[in-house]
């Protein structure tokens, strides 16, 4: 029997709320019109509140990777060095971007599922006096792991010439992140994660320190020229044609976050994350991460069961799309998202389909409903 309904429980793209879809479907505005300028400036103002920054927040028409590329091409000259934390697929992306644009990556390899040690970063900084930046994920989405970015920011107070550039693509809107207080010079996110908007927009914050660096670095990108974007966006325009409907939709999603309250949004994500972890543990399963994130939970597949088969059964038989592992973790884990437009009933549905899939694959060290009961009890008691 084929499913009659499809449900999305992946760590991006995430489910888009009805309000945001309605905003997305409105007639397209001319991107140089006064009306779009008004909405664009509203969205930028709301993003500054989300980031909790006094710096500038720019909206780029691209995926989150576009903002990552913009950070590398606008903030480093060829031959500069940067400490790069590689503890998953997206840490590897920082490394690849550096190599592509002539920046020397000083790589700190972290076992996938573990967080970087602050002493390893400090050791790299002491051994390389010419370092211009530290590139890290707040949440490494591929492993569901949080890095201590606040701790890194505290450490970098002793290195005033080093920028902290943080990929928060699955962190902003999941956590209440005080960008300035943590010492994040450049923060990055994307529309399609906790911001509850379809893919296509990247957001990058730049504090005064980062803006000063912009002026010191030779421009090496045409489309992702942040100096050009900064000048235009301060006046309510973009350098090139904006993703107009996406910006309108993003502004509506940001209104929803404001209405719920950023602190409440963060608490909701924490409750859902803890309920999910309790649920999978009740099935006798283990988490990959030693420091699990509140946006996505990575679960080790039982011995003898391919995690991709769990994903396939969930999607094809039950209409629920969850995520598998990447690179060497493919087949070894599956991932359950709990970010964005998600509530406890989404979590219970996700756990139920995991039970169905595991049972079909021969793993039966549980009774139906064990994960749901554990999740419900944890959620109720938080």
Automatic annotation (TrEMBL):
<keyword id="KW-0663">Pyridoxal phosphate</keyword>
<feature type="domain" description="Aminotransferase class V">
    <location>
        <begin position="22"/>
        <end position="327"/>
    </location>
</feature>
<feature type="binding site">
    <location>
        <position position="335"/>
    </location>
    <ligand>
        <name>substrate</name>
    </ligand>
</feature>
<dbReference type="InterPro" id="IPR015421">
    <property type="entry name" value="PyrdxlP-dep_Trfase_major"/>
</dbReference>
<dbReference type="GO" id="GO:0019265">
    <property type="term" value="P:glycine biosynthetic process, by transamination of glyoxylate"/>
</dbReference>
<dbReference type="InterPro" id="IPR015424">
    <property type="entry name" value="PyrdxlP-dep_Trfase"/>
</dbReference>
<protein>
    <submittedName>
        <fullName>Serine--glyoxylate transaminase</fullName>
        <ecNumber>2.6.1.45</ecNumber>
    </submittedName>
</protein>
<keyword id="KW-0808">Transferase</keyword>
<dbReference type="InterPro" id="IPR024169">
    <property type="entry name" value="SP_NH2Trfase/AEP_transaminase"/>
</dbReference>
<keyword id="KW-0032">Aminotransferase</keyword>
<dbReference type="GO" id="GO:0050281">
    <property type="term" value="F:L-serine-glyoxylate transaminase activity"/>
</dbReference>
<dbReference type="GO" id="GO:0004760">
    <property type="term" value="F:L-serine-pyruvate transaminase activity"/>
</dbReference>
<dbReference type="InterPro" id="IPR000192">
    <property type="entry name" value="Aminotrans_V_dom"/>
</dbReference>
<dbReference type="InterPro" id="IPR015422">
    <property type="entry name" value="PyrdxlP-dep_Trfase_small"/>
</dbReference>
<comment type="similarity">
    <text>Belongs to the class-V pyridoxal-phosphate-dependent aminotransferase family.</text>
</comment>
<feature type="modified residue" description="N6-(pyridoxal phosphate)lysine">
    <location>
        <position position="193"/>
    </location>
</feature>
<dbReference type="Pfam" id="PF00266">
    <property type="entry name" value="Aminotran_5"/>
</dbReference>
<dbReference type="GO" id="GO:0008453">
    <property type="term" value="F:alanine-glyoxylate transaminase activity"/>
</dbReference>
